[in-house]
Design goal:
Layout (H helix, E strand, L loop, with lengths): L1 E4 L8 H14 L4 E5 L14 E5 L5 E5 L7 E4 L3 E4 L2 E4 L1 H17 L11 E6 L4 H8 L3 H6 L5 E5 L17 H8 L1
Parallel strand pairs: 1-2, 4-8, 8-9
Antiparallel strand pairs: 2-3, 3-4, 5-6, 6-7
């Protein structure tokens, strides 16, 4: 898999480096491409994914990295999150927007429509699930994900590679070339 950091901040972005190292160890030998901060994929809120990849044999994947510690989060709602620094759009909704943007790009090619819908992962490298649920309630993360499809959360205490999903349907060579274009 080729990795393309589209902006220079990757050199200082330790969580993104950890994420890419995990992905590379797991699927680095697979035919595909992985981008850091790819500007072509954006959400309604103009958010770009921290990492996005298209790998043969896997569903397309977008990642957002939440770079907050638990004490920096004051409230988490389905629409907005309040941090010590102010309110932000729910990163889960932004991630869903990114996932839908990838699907829209794929759906432009008839042979790719709904074959392997994209998945999204919110990576929280500084927050464990236990910390989150202690602060916001035992089932809060499940409530936040309830209405979202194909979205997962990876906590600081969970294996990053656990979010990878095999393709629902293997693409033939022609479909694979179309997916990469």
């Amino acid at each position: 898999m080729d990795f393309i950091p589209t902006i220079d901040s990757y050199a200082e972005d330790t969580p993104a480096q950890q994420l890419w190292a995990t992905l590379e160890a797991k699927i680095g030998g697979v035919d595909g491409i992985c981008y850091y901060k790819h500007p072509v994929i954006t959400a309604t809120s103009a958010v770009s994914p921290d990492i996005a990849f298209l790998a043969r044999g896997y569903r397309p994947h977008v990642f957002l990295i939440l770079r907050y510690a638990i004490d920096e989060l004051d409230d988490v709602g389905t629409e907005r999150w309040r941090t010590r620094h102010g309110e932000i759009d729910s990163p889960l909704l932004a991630l869903d927007d990114l996932r839908i943007a990838v699907n829209s790009r794929m759906d432009k090619v008839r042979s790719l429509r709904a074959k392997n819908p994209a998945v999204g992962t919110l990576y929280m490298p500084f927050i464990s699930r236990q910390e989150f649920e202690t602060k916001f309630g035992e089932r809060r993360s499940d409530e936040l994900l309830r209405d979202l499809q194909d979205i997962t959360i990876i906590w600081s205490d969970r294996d990053l590679s656990s979010c990878l999903e095999d393709a629902r349907r293997q693409l033939n060579d022609q479909e694979w070339r179309a997916a990469q274009s």
